[in-house]
Amino acid sequence: ASVAASAVGTAPRRALVRRPARNLAEGQLTHLARSPIDLARADEQWRGYVAALAAAGWDTIEVEPAPHLPDSVFIEDTVILFGDQAVVCSPGAPSRRGETAAAEAAVRALGLTVHRIELPGTLDGGDVLKVGRTVYVGRSLRTNGDGVRQLRAILEPRGHTVVPVPITKVLHLKSAVTALPDGTVIGYRPLIDDPSVFPRFLPVPEPEGTAVVVLDAGTVLMSSAAPRSAALFAGLGYQVVTVDISEFEKLEGCVTCLSVRVR
Ligand code: CIR
Question: Which annotated residues bind substrate (predicted)?
Fold first, then answer.
């Protein structure tokens, strides 16, 4: 019924989400110092994020909550979708390995074909950025060479090109770069080892401005912590929806981490 829905025809647009764990405050930290988490505020911010997806025409599917897995809200890391193919990830952090079973059950319930990255291969969904048929994969602390090799073996026969990208300054590839609807890769230059791997790269002025969720061809969702980046995208003709996700940013999460879009 919305303008956004008409932009992509009549196909239902769905996104997986997972509500925050009760021990969210114990989530993994790699580059940031621990600061107190307000759980009530995190719950409220998560509801705001889900409401923003819904307002843009996305039906959200809630994966079974995991109240004792602190990082389970960051569902993006557990499964990657390529059309009707799902790749269940192999989390690089041992504390996160219990998160994948429910994500796998959710994508099976959607009728998708399921592939799996297996140990000793590790791969976090936050390291995977799709731009057209190109799949950039962060070679990070979480994703190892075996994980990249397994993903390549799944995707290359299906017409995707897997391009590994060394990442040393942030947790995941998508903590440093994401892409606008037209495929331009955006990122905060100091967080990126080598932006020349991306054919079209646009630097943004704030670290929280690196992450956008494409809601439709003309609309992006991003953190309210990056107003100058929001102004940059608006100036390029995009509609920008912002959400406050400060409690998740304290745990090195960003807007992309909180959902998996089914497309
Ligand atoms: C972690 O360290 O695994 C979580 N505290 C944050 C995960 C963020 N996910 C993402 O960037 N895709």
Answer: 29, 71, 76-77, 96, 142, 251
Task: Answer yes or no: are the C-beta atoms of 137 and 121 closer than 8 Å.
Answer: no
Res. 10 pLDDT band, cuts 50 70 90: low
Residue 70 Cα: closest atom of ligand 1:
5
CA distance 235 to 193: 27
On whether the CB atoms of residues 13 and 53 are closer than 8 A, the answer is no
pTM over 0.90: yes
Active site residue 89: no
Confidence of residue 4 (pLDDT cuts 50, 70, 90): very low
**pLDDT digit string (tens) for 86-114?**
999 999 999 999 999 999 999 999 999 99
Query: What domains can be seen in the chain, in order of their start residue?
Result: 12-262 (3.75.10.10)
* Ligand 1 pocket, mutate which of 171, 174, 177, 191 (most atoms under 8 A from CB): 171
Distance CA 28, CA 32 (A): 10
Q: CB–CB of 183/159 below 8 Å?
A: no
